[in-house]
Amino acid sequence: MAFPGFSKQGLRWLSELKDNNNREWFQASKQTYEQELKLPLLALVDSLNNQIAAKLPEYFLDEPAKATFRIYRDTRFSKNKTPYKTHVSAAFPRRGLLEKAAGLYFQISGEAIGIAGGSYNPLPDSLLAIRTRIAEEHVAFEKLTHNKKLVKMMGELQGEQLRRIPKGFPPDHPMESALRRKQFYFWAELDGALAGSPRLEKELITRFEAL
């Protein structure tokens, strides 16, 4: 059966969390989070995973529950000490490569649906491999990242950039702008109202296919 969407109660809880981001409020309303957000998120991921098995087998997960992220924030190295994320989220990494390759991601908040694909924080060896591949196959890279269907759905390639091209690459390379990137990803947002609709699953899988 198709995923029915998140409940109004669950989405309202996420919106209220923004103004009550503290342990006391969270503990008092944790049951709402568990029932109206965590369980539906697992159901959505499981359903998406079944479609991914047929359409995008490289991103199929043997244990789909591992796709979901915890709502607890890691505040150790952040100035923002609020303990909870104000969205629920999940990711589908490429099989067998985890953080070494681009992945698919989505998040649900009370205001918007975020959808992404790419490599957000590649490790140094992966970053070098990506840049090297772009330098060697820049025509194919430009064709892929400017695909009309992809750009219409997801916009332009995004990510932080260095001011200068990294050492080892010619400064006059035709893909100079891409080689300065430290991140390589597409990001799009849809109306948050979609989270309460059974159309959510179709919108996600359609954009995953484009990515």
Keywords:
211 residues; alpha+beta; 8 helices; 41% helix; globular
Please tell me about this protein's structure:
The protein is an alpha+beta fold and 211 residues long. It is built from 8 helices and 4 strands, in the order H-H-H-E-E-E-H-H-H-H-E-H. The protein has a 4-stranded antiparallel β-sheet, covered by helices on one side. Strand 2 and strand 3 form a beta hairpin. The model has no long low-confidence stretch (mean pLDDT 94).
Give the arrangement of secondary structure elements:
Elements: H1 8-17, H2 23-28, H3 30-55, E1 88-92, E2 103-108, E3 112-119, H4 124-136, H5 138-145, H6 148-154, H7 176-179, E4 184-191, H8 199-210
Antiparallel strand pairs: 1-2, 2-3, 3-4
Helix pairs in contact: 1-3, 3-8, 4-5
